Amino acid sequence: MNEDVSNLSARLTPSAAMIMEGSVDGSNSSSSLAAASVVPSFSSVNPWDVALCVTGSLIACENAVVVAVIVHSPALREPMFLLIGSLATADLLAGLGLIFYFVFQYVYQSDASSLVSVGLLVASFSASVSSLLSITIDRYLSLYYALTYHSERTMSCTYIMLATTWGASLVLGALPSLGWNCLRDFASCSIIRPLTKNHVVFLSVTFLFVFAIMLQLYAQICKIVCRHAQQIAVQHHFLATSHYVTTKKGVSTLAIILGTFAACWMPFSIYSLIGDLSFPSVYTYATLLPATYNSVINPIIYAFRNQDIQKALWILCCGCLSTNVPFRARTPSDV
């Protein structure tokens, strides 16, 4: 029995392992909890946790720049930039959550800190994925309703999406602290303690649902882009080769966006559905780390490639350009 417990303890957080080992040895539970608060030796630091912490630091730095640029630039107040700002804010919190998780794992261990750090990660990554969906919806609307896109109705729709995104994400992040956790029932734990198996399955199914919606929307966007490119080619008497190149560029951009999102999050989502506490923890790390890379790539795809954000970043960093320089108006063909 001691061998079974040691195997289970290796897949829990250090504090949980101490508690379980203490219960088997017959020691007092209060002494086990006290021992869990002792600072552990850094010689036993898990390299995977270090990788997550380093990735979190990179995520936080990247997205802090994007948030600062959007907040600093009054010209970046269109719906598209508000949604990009929401995505950057969510990813910034996700990066900070990974750093806090590392600190709480190896510096200050307690049930409360575990609930807070994991809750922050759930809320921030949920907001990140939801913001990606909102950006996809915005891009679809800007193409499908090109003539009426720049209207107050669009701005109201943006605010509704932002409120829904952050409201739902905060609720999902608060659930572990409100009692939906496995701190008192190790058998119900998922691959990520202290989240329950049902909680993780719900999050994974929700992600797959969001991905299906994004796939459908980007398929519609691809059709609209191809139709627009063909119409422009006919109106301006472009060659068929020019039309092919324009269409291929738009489709390639959409494929990169959707492919990157799927490659980062799909392995972890599928593993969350089939994995449990008996699986080796290396499988969890090997699928979770690529998922965090999505927050590293998001600023590159959605922010730093945008000409208006590039210009605002140049002004913020160097002040070499006049703040009166006009920003390029967004056109329905922007994807």
Automatic annotation (TrEMBL):
InterPro entries (UniProt xref): GPCR_Rhodpsn (IPR000276), GPCR_Rhodpsn_7TM (IPR017452), GPR6 (IPR001151), GPR_3/6/12_orphan (IPR000723)
PROSITE patterns recorded: G_PROTEIN_RECEP_F1_1, G_PROTEIN_RECEP_F1_2
Highest rank taxon of the organism: Eukaryota
Residue ranges annotated for the G-protein coupled receptors family 1 profile domain, each copy included: 62-302
Annotated Gene3D superfamilies: Rhodopsin 7-helix transmembrane proteins
GO molecular function: G protein-coupled receptor activity
Similarity remark: Belongs to the G-protein coupled receptor 1 family.
Protein name in UniProt: G protein-coupled receptor 185 b
Provenance organism: Petromyzon marinus (Sea lamprey)
Gene transcribed to yield this protein: LOC116953362
